[in-house]
Write a structure and sequence with these properties.
The chain is mostly helical and 564 residues long. 66% of the residues lie in helices and 4% in strands. It contains 22 helices and 6 strands. It has a 3-stranded mixed sheet. A 3-stranded mixed sheet has the order 4-5-6. Helix 3 (89-97) packs across helix 17 and helix 13 (327-347) runs antiparallel to helix 14 (354-371). It starts with 7 loop residues before the first helix and ends with a helix.
């Protein structure tokens, strides 16, 4: 933290470090994001070239073969690196809330590789989630190589901003989305490096790659008489987003219960191939299909079929183990829903130009509920449409969608994933960060351990000498048996320590974290809580004051970061 009396030299050096970190992460994150997107496109093009001119059955078999190869590769990757689960954006968000826990960059790179395989083979998964997490992994790796006074979560946020900016060509949206969905607060200390990373990544794209924004749209004048339709679309988008997210989680839970990863990914590949034979638009990332909707080149029946097929395909792929992101599928589903709303609007007598606007609004509304970044998504709309009217229409629908989905489901799909893993971000980073402090790091006291055979009057004498009110009974091997209160010892002077042990026992372990210790302390009444190691050996005791003091110190440290 820079103080008001920081010298010009120190300020200059700190500014250079900030710019250097932002520049390095921006370049690396931008390169990684573009290589991922272009690589997926190149592999998919090779597969499609093989399918060109073939019958529907032959094309389907080629796609199935590609998916099967991808499924075996993903399974092999998971086994080779002993991955218990795939990592994604939820882990990047958690890392921002627990900056001292360390970011699993290795798992991030492996998971991104698996997602690349899935997307290249034609699985109905997204590219931006893996790219986002890869950017976070890049940021964490840069910190390991070039540590500065910047907090670890700032490095992660810089990587995420670089990936989003390069992926969408939207640097302003990237800065806001990171603050909204990842950091979950606006920190002055983070603005400069995040902004530099986002702008540098956006500049890398046209400088080294022949890429522009993935979605092409021509903005049309907005008829504000469409306001009821926009609000209705926002409510419908919330329902669709909730169905999408719940289906993903339930399918994943069902697949996990089968306890056969290989069978599940092969089943996903087979079902994906079948869906792709029936509805080709459901295969892969779906970027071209979304652009077709934005251009108004689909019939209403085709759009409805695409929506259903994409929903089923994505749930099957991600739920059964073909790892990938949910952002691109959410955009696809939202575009299809908005396109259908556009046809309803035309049927009500509105101008056909409403179809394009409602398609964009639908994309924003569904994606905003799924990823938990309503303002960031609206800014993405603004940057790739360059239309203030489209952005205003989008924020109306996104507000309605987010209002409903946050109350009926969760803040985002990633938040629900973290809750299922035991991390509730609603508790705030101050409380979550308590998991990074172990009981072994707190101030402990020796206490008054006594042998199990010691009688009450001897226990009283020892406690008076130590000026304490509780004794901790241990066996011959040092294992903790329980606690004896001085009042119990006074009442039964000839009773053995083992017979005087109270019924309600509260203990802590050295490996327990501060959050667990705080939970035990809430229900504890006494002098101090005994602590034992993994083998049950008594090692000391810890007072409620030490636990509370450690909690307040930690929370003040986290708040200090947010206050710059």
């Amino acid at each position: 933290m820079l103080l008001l009396n920081t010298s010009p030299r120190e300020l200059g050096l700190e500014l250079l470090r900030v710019l250097f970190v932002g520049l390095v992460i921006g370049v690396l994150g931008g390169l990684a994001a573009n290589l991922f997107v272009l690589g997926v496109g190149a592999v998919d093009s090779l597969i499609r070239d093989q399918m060109a001119g073939q019958s529907a059955l032959s094309s389907g078999l080629i796609r199935w073969a590609a998916l099967l190869v991808g499924a075996f590769a993903i399974y092999g990757l998971k086994q080779a690196f002993s991955m218990d689960r795939w990592h994604g954006p939820a882990d990047a968000i958690l890392a921002a809330h627990r900056p001292d826990a360390g970011f699993p960059a290795r798992e991030g790179f492996i998971s991104t590789t698996a997602a690349f395989i899935s997307a290249s083979a034609g699985a109905s998964v997204g590219q931006y989630g893996p790219v986002l997490h890869f950017g976070a992994s890049v940021g964490a790796q840069v910190r390991a190589l070039f540590p500065t006074r910047l907090a670890p979560d700032v490095y992660v946020a810089c990587g995420v901003a670089a990936a989003i900016s390069a992926g969408f060509g939207a640097p302003i949206a990237a800065v806001v989305l990171v603050s909204e969905a990842v950091l979950r607060h606006f920190a002055v200390r983070a603005v400069a490096p995040i902004t530099v990373s986002a702008i540098v990544a956006a500049a890398v794209t046209p400088l080294f790659f022949d890429r522009v924004s993935p979605y092409a749209v021509t903005a049309t004048p907005t008829d504000w008489g469409l306001l009821p339709v926009i609000l209705g679309l926002g409510a419908s988008a919330a329902v669709l987003a909730i169905v999408f997210m719940r289906s993903l989680l339930r399918t994943a839970a069902w697949a996990k219960a089968r306890n056969n990863d290989l069978a599940m990914v092969l089943l996903a590949a087979t079902l994906m191939a079948l869906i792709g034979m029936l509805v080709p638009e459901a295969v892969g990332l779906g970027t071209q299909s979304v652009n077709d909707l934005l251009a108004g080149e689909k019939q209403v029946g085709e759009a409805a079929l695409m929506l259903v097929a994409k929903l089923a395909a994505t749930v099957v792929c991600i739920g059964l183990g073909l790892v990938g992101g949910v952002f691109s599928p959410a955009l696809f589903l939202g575009a299809s829903l908005g396109y259908l709303a556009g046809f309803i609007a035309v049927g009500l007598g509105y101008d056909p130009g409403a179809i394009t606007m409602l398609t964009v609004v639908g994309m924003a509304a569904v994606a905003g509920s799924v990823i938990g970044a309503p303002i960031g998504v609206v800014l993405i709309v603004f940057e790739f449409t360059r239309s203030y009217e489209f952005a205003v229409a989008a924020i109306l629908a996104v507000s309605m969608s987010s209002f409903i989905s946050t109350r009926l489901f969760c803040y985002s799909f990633f938040d629900r994933q973290l809750i299922m893993r035991g991390f509730d971000l609603r508790q705030g980073r101050e409380f979550l960060s308590l998991r990074d402090i172990k009981v072994s790091e707190l101030e402990m006291e020796e206490g008054s351990p006594v042998d199990r055979a010691l009688v009450g009057e001897e226990i009283v004498a020892r406690l008076r000498q130590a000026n304490r009110t509780e004794a901790y009974v241990v066996g011959g091997d040092g294992q903790l048996l329980g606690t004896v209160n001085i009042l119990e010892a006074l009442a039964q002077p000839q009773g053995t320590a083992e017979s005087l042990i109270g019924a309600d026992q509260h203990v802590l372990h050295l490996e327990d974290d501060l959050q667990q210790a705080l939970g035990v302390a809430r229900n504890f009444v006494g002098e101090a809580i005994p602590v034992m190691d993994a083998a049950g050996i008594y090692v000391g005791c810890i007072s409620e004051g030490a636990i509370l003091g450690g909690t307040l110190d930690r929370q003040e440290q986290v708040k200090g970061r947010e206050r710059n």
